[in-house]
Design goal:
Elements (H helix, E strand, L loop, with lengths): L17 H10 L4 H13 L1 H14 L2 H4 L9 H8 L17 H21 L16 E4 L5 E8 L4 E6 L10 E7 L6 E6 L5 E4 L13 E7 L13 E6 L4
Antiparallel strand pairs: 1-2, 2-3, 3-6, 4-5, 4-7, 7-8
Helix pairs in contact: 1-3, 1-6, 2-3
Length: about 240
């Protein structure tokens, strides 16, 4: 009897079709050059943009289908211990990691990425040292609702941003991401999407500012003049960068 994979041709290494490319773009699975080309195409090609929006709609319900489960206080220390990380310094933090919505969203995003890797990739490349796991920083509204989930890689100068769909309505304005160093003024990192997962490339001169204790914030700004010299619009979400 044939196995489920007997009829799959794994010898084809041709570029992915538009539908697969759109799915990988939405989930943030493309390499940097591929991602930039695909993102630029989505801005100018209406047919391709519809495919990206279609995948966005397919995966967005995962964020609300995961049943909320309150993690125990020992869960995060056990994960750190199993990974061989040192225990974090004891200090007071905002109760974001205790938020059920945060764990619901983080679990859904992780499940979506894992499932997409299985379904869309012929093979999974083992992670390298530069792809080590990092904690997720939550950019939340004043009422504690998560708006973006962010992973910071200061060494590579990358900020991976995953929006929680439907939590922000920029209207005619755009969402602009800022880094606020401890005791310093906000510095724009550029525009971020309120609909699609993507990566923000950070200039080398700013990478040292992506340190634990600094704050990431998103404001609503005019479309013209990005990156702006200083924020003028309201802050819609913010969160402190966490220690690894």
């Amino acid at each position: 009897m044939n196995s489920p994979t007997d009829d799959i041709d794994t010898s084809d290494r041709s570029p992915p079709g538009d539908d697969l490319l759109a799915a990988e773009l939405m989930l943030g699975l493309l390499e940097p050059d591929e991602r930039r080309r695909a993102a630029a195409r989505a801005e100018t090609d209406p047919a391709f943009a519809r495919l990206v929006d279609g995948w966005d709609q397919r995966f967005a319900p995962w964020l609300v289908r995961v049943e909320p489960v309150a993690p125990s206080a020992a869960l995060w220390p056990r994960i750190r211990r199993d990974l061989g990380w040192e225990a974090p310094p004891q200090r007071a933090r905002a109760p974001l990691w205790g938020s059920l919505l945060l764990w619901r969203c983080a679990t859904a995003v992780a499940a979506g990425v894992a499932l997409a890797v299985v379904l869309l990739r012929p093979a999974v490349v083992p992670p390298t040292e530069t792809a080590a796991a990092r904690p997720v920083t939550t950019l939340a509204h004043d009422d504690g609702r998560a708006a973006w989930l962010v992973t910071v890689d200061a060494t590579q100068g990358k900020v991976f941003v995953v929006p929680v769909p439907g939590t922000v309505s920029p209207g005619e304005r755009i969402c602009e991401l800022w880094i606020i160093p401890s005791g310093g003024a906000p510095i724009s990192l550029g525009a971020v999407s309120d609909r699609k997962a993507h990566t923000v490339d950070i200039a080398e001169a700013l990478r040292a500012r992506l340190a634990a204790g600094a704050v990431l914030a998103v404001t609503l700004e005019d479309r013209q003049g990005v990156p702006h010299a200083a924020p003028a619009g309201p802050i819609v979400a913010k969160g402190e960068i966490l220690d690894i």
